[in-house]
């Protein structure tokens, strides 16, 4: 099978979006203005992109027959890094609070990070739930009862209602338990399944039953939604994260547009290199941001140098750690495997996210 070039670009974008979102959070501690909020708009798509990619590639690769040991393998590749990095972040935060003289309990920190998923690795818990759902959906042939087209609409409404109501009633369980519930992300599963059904192109416009897909993939639809988001942002009426109601239509419009425009655009060597280390970058970059913050506490930098160090140390450190871990036996399993990304276009299909 030919490489899925679009996925290289989507994973590249998703990796940089997550990295940029956390970078902007750091910068926001020093600068707070509407321009930073506008910059966050494209960055909120990072987490949804990774979930979408995984389901899309599993479905296009395995169809309705996930291989034996599928879930066991996913547990190893996803949950072991979750535990390793969760421990690292929990212990480092515990030590930092002790250094600052704050009252802190190690067991409480471990519970917050590992049980309540109170760190950016909450994404791995979401992903694992959808890997299990994909296995059930395929193994028990649920497509006739849960057709992707109608259920994309239903699940989008469920997600919008979930994020909207929890915000309205200020429902805040411990950690990120609110975020890891699948209700807010269910639309990503059915969007991925629907795109696989019609890959590599959307249904012809004459097929009225699904002509809405082609209409939504038009650049005018995405541009109109972006303009509306920018206007609301300019007047301070929106919160910016991947867990907002307005992100769901934005992601659907963005995905339909990009998957129909990037098919014949070959990924560059830089795009493929970021793809190769994307999992490690996702997991490790806040650790290197924290190192820059620690040094900055004792040796204050001008803002431009602080930003430059965050970008360089965060990216280079994450790639370097992932490169080193994957050269140690078992290191990739613990710290995140690098993806197999063929250098030549004639090579096998693009490596699956988190595989």
TrEMBL record:
GO terms for molecular function: O-acetyltransferase activity. One of its GO terms (cellular component) is plasma membrane. InterPro entries: Acyl_transf_3_dom. One of its GO terms (biological process) is enterobacterial common antigen biosynthetic process. Pfam families: Acyl_transf_3. The chain crosses the membrane at residues 7-24, 44-63, 75-95, 115-137, 144-164, 176-194, 215-234, 246-262, 274-291, 303-325. It comes from the Bacteria. The keyword Transit peptide does not apply. It is found in: Cell membrane. The keyword Cell membrane applies. Residues 7-322 form the Acyltransferase domain. It is a multi-pass membrane protein. Keywords: Acyltransferase, Cell membrane, Membrane, Transferase, Transmembrane, Transmembrane helix. Belongs to the acyltransferase 3 family. This is Acyltransferase. It comes from Candidatus Halomonas stercoripullorum.
